[in-house]
Amino acid sequence: MRRTARGIAVLASAAIALAVTACGNDATEAPTKTDPAALAAELTWWDTSDPANEGPAFKELITEFNKTYPNVKINYQSVPFGEAQNKFKTAAAAKSGAPDILRAEVAWVPEFASLGYLYNLDGSELLADESDYFATPMSANKFDGKTYGVPQVTDSLALMYNKKIFADAGITEAPKTWADVKTAAAAIKAKTKKDGLFINAGGYFLLPFIYGEGGDLVDTAAKKITVNSAANVAGIAVAADLVKSGAAVKPPANDSYGTMMTLFKEQKVAMIINGPWEVNNLRNAPTFGGIDNLGVAAVPAGSAKAGAPVGGHNYVLYSGMAQDKAAAAIAFVKFMSSATSQAFLADKLGVLPTRKSAYDIDKVKNNAIIAAFQPVVSSAVARPWIPEGGQFFGPLDTMATEVLVQGKDPKTSLDGVANKYKTEVVTAYSAG
Amino acid sequence: MSTDTATPARTSPPPRETRRPSRLRRSWDKHWYAWVMVAPVVLVLGVLIFYPLGRGILLSFTNLTEANQLAEICSKSITGTEVCKPNPNAWEVVGVDNYVNILTGKVGEFWQQFGVTLLWTVTCVVFHYGLGLGLAVLLNRPMRGRGIYRVLLILPWAVPAFVSAFAWRFMFNEQFGLINSLFESVGLDRVEWFADWKTALLTAIIANIWLGVPFMMVTLLGGMQTIPGEQYEAAEIDGATPWQRFVNITLPGLRSVSMTVLLLGFIWTFNMFPIIFLVTGGEPAGQTEILVTGAFRSAFEGIRNYSLSSTYGVLILSILLVFSVFYRRALRKQGEVW
């Protein structure tokens, strides 16, 4: 009985999907042919962006979307980023209460996909112009040969600095290597009595040091844990030395990130390693001296290269969504991720578009901050996109605190991380 | 229990002359209404407590996680097709592997967390009880503005725990916190509270003491007011000093109340999740994690590990059970009926 019902559902949905793709193909040629008003559905969208800073811009886009699709009702729900992952998993496992559309962080997609919680979008209109997306952010949506989402925004870490402090210290060019950072910090301390750098004591924020020496956390191809490789130890030692030598402020173990942002906003520290998601926050900070005071450069290089991890968010569709809503959901995601919408968000929020074509739109082209971030993003390093990807950061955070705050030896601490990966995260991998 | 209720109803009673009805039967005849009245409670307890408890214990012998709970994983395509394939690593029963892994330290930091938990619990309970008792003694005397003091002292209780936790966390903030500013203003050095596990744990303990004292105070005050005033009068006439009165009348009079609140305090503090989680967040580097927060982290970060969290839960429950049993035995030895 249940099996027949499912069979019918599959057949019906296949028919609908055929109709949808047919419409889509027609639409590219003659947009007047499909009637957007005929599309009626009610969709729930969990937005995990900051409700005060970013939410309003997304709501504006929804209003815009409804001008074309008046009968697709979008239930916009703001879900705090920190809770969304668990909340979605709980709801999806219970098959009740999960949203139709979710803004998922890049590392969540392979995890959700491996659990069967997402629709794969292969063959749908959403992937028709896949080549327009940057390859690295797109790679986060792939799992097991299928594609489960489209990139909403991308980001990466960059060196953000205070132009005024740099000028006061007589520094004319952003530092290119960690050694340059050390020199610059010394000059800043000597001339302005301010601190040079703040490194957030979190695993994600130490990745540039690891990538800078050509290292990585694991080798997914060889199924090997490489987090305690000699290159990584050397990279983390650079970070530890920056703190020990006084070039960087010693971060507190608790609320390191908040302390970093407060000090930077109050112009007490000249450089931080952070991403474009804070641009709007800095723009609105009264003490920072306006967005023109913000300098953005690629993360400083180690001995091998300058590398920062790719981050960002994707639009994904919950596999429990009824098939008959697929057409509306596709239309919505397509609208939200169009080059025009991305340019709108970039202009409003300073977040980085994931489509190459969006960067040709004047609003984006003329935005100095985005222009500064673009090379950072196009050279960002993809993280290991495996379901366990999100679990790599717990042990790394511990390591960051041990090394930067408690002055523990990088090698010992990284060995501890490798051991945790082996026993708890990727047990099938071989130790490095 | 169901047999208890069902059997007597069906069997016809044997003739009275030949044999007396069974004890069960007599009990049922006399107390059937009691069974009927407790039935809903037993049912609710069964559904809400015993079923999850039993299930938790069973889960601890498996390797069930969120990733392997389904026998087959289906990948649905938005274009309408659905591919299902058997889960390559579906969950299985693994015996006592989880217990071995946790207790040998292969997974998680059980023993370190256990040590921190004990230190945390004992310190908190000692201060809760000591301060609560002191304040209760103070407030048990007639004095001006007693009502105001009582309201003020009960205040920490009225504030939601997470609000207090955040307030304390902010006060101990190393850069901007009130406490470091105070230290600096009197010429002391800033303390890096969360760089060392001892000071980090101290911040959480202080926050928890602040939160827990009102409960102890109110309970002990209540206990004190049940002690007949004549005893104090008699002692005074006999020339007992205030200290003697406290030791020989107040403390014995409070005994039953004290024993109960100490046991409750121990169990509550042992499992006090929000304070550690919100005040120290386990910092530095997980060294102030107690068993419950450690269990939460190892079980609910990333792909959820249901079997590991159950194992942790069973271990925590066992520790508390052993403690309670010994505690009760110790009380019974002292002639306490509880």
TrEMBL record, chain A:
PROSITE patterns hit by this protein: PROKAR_LIPOPROTEIN (PS51257)
Keyword set, alphabetical order: Signal, Transport
First and last residue of the signal peptide: 1-22
GO cellular component: ATP-binding cassette (ABC) transporter complex, substrate-binding subunit-containing
Molecular function via GO: maltose binding
One GO term of the biological process aspect: maltose transport
InterPro entries for this protein: SBP
Superkingdom as given in the UniProt entry: Bacteria
Entry annotated with the keyword Signal: yes
Family statement: Belongs to the bacterial solute-binding protein 1 family.
Protein's UniProt name: Sugar ABC transporter substrate-binding protein
Automatic annotation (TrEMBL), chain B:
Any Pfam family the entry gives: BPD_transp_1
Compartments, record wording: Cell membrane
Membrane topology: Multi-pass membrane protein
Principal cellular location given in the protein's record: membrane
InterPro entries documented for this protein: ABC_transporter_permease, MetI-like, MetI-like_sf
Keyword check for Membrane: yes
Residue stretches spanning the membrane: 32-53, 118-139, 151-171, 200-221, 261-279, 306-327
Positions of the ABC transmembrane type-1 domain: 114-327
One cellular component (GO) term of this entry: plasma membrane
PANTHER family: ABC TRANSPORTER PERMEASE PROTEIN (PTHR30193), INNER MEMBRANE ABC TRANSPORTER PERMEASE PROTEIN YCJO (PTHR30193:SF37)
Protein name: ABC transporter permease
